[in-house]
Amino acid sequence: MKKFLLLSATLFISFAGFAQTTTKYGFTLGGNLTQISGKGIDNKSSLGFIAGVFARVPLTDKWNVQPELLFNYANAQKGTDFLEVYNDNGYQNARTAIGLSYISLPVLFDYKLTKLVTINAGPEYDFLVDDNEDLVANGNRAFKLNNLGISGGAELNLGGFRFFANYVYGLTNINDIDSRYKWYQRQALIGLNFNIM
What pTM does this model have? Predict the structure, then answer.
């Protein structure tokens, strides 16, 4: 865990250092609406939050690249069919609420449509640092540690503040119980980026 966080911070700082004289640094705060689809999981969306830092590196007058290092807390719920699906290894008294804490590393490529509006897209890697769940009877983890996705969205630029709305489409099957059924995570993000330097 410590090695992963150190590597993440090193990559973030290295990436951000390409254009130090014009690179903008700041904080990200916002909310997420997470849906995990698949058998045994409630497919409804649940609210969570994100918080972290970003660096905005200009590539041209129109293009920027923005690596981010985020704490991403996602809520989910056990499905009513969980014990029917996982009757061999599901925990009979498992809590309904599931909390997943990720370190998320999106790298967004921004294109400035106008002075006010920017669109972005790029890959996102999520590492599960804590899973507040007890779905499996033998104490094993129900969710995989690694998740890869594609993020895309838009921003409204107001000087030192930028309001954003993004959607992250998970590509990785995050079910770590067995290989019979696949779980995929989708997230809608809305929040604020603000520059500090």
Answer: 0.86
Decide the pairing of beta strands 184-195 and 97-112: unpaired
Q: What single string gives the DSSP state of each residue in 120-154? A: EEEEEEEEEEEEE---BTTS--SB-SEEEEEEEEE
Max Cα–Cα distance, the chain, nearest Å = 59
Q: Per residue of the chain (197 residues), give pLDDT as tens.
A: 555 555 555 555 555 454 456 899 999 999 999 999 999 999 999 999 999 999 999 999 999 999 999 999 999 999 999 999 998 888 888 999 999 999 999 999 999 999 999 999 999 999 999 999 999 988 889 999 999 999 999 999 998 899 999 999 999 999 999 889 999 999 999 999 998 87
Contacts of 4 (CB under 8 A, 6+ apart): 103, 127
- Are 92 and 52 spatial neighbours (Cβ–Cβ below 8 Å)? no
Q: What three-state secondary structure class fits 6?
A: helix
The CA-CA-CA angle for residues 129, 165, 97, to 5°, reads: 40
Structure-token match 């972005």, residue found: 120
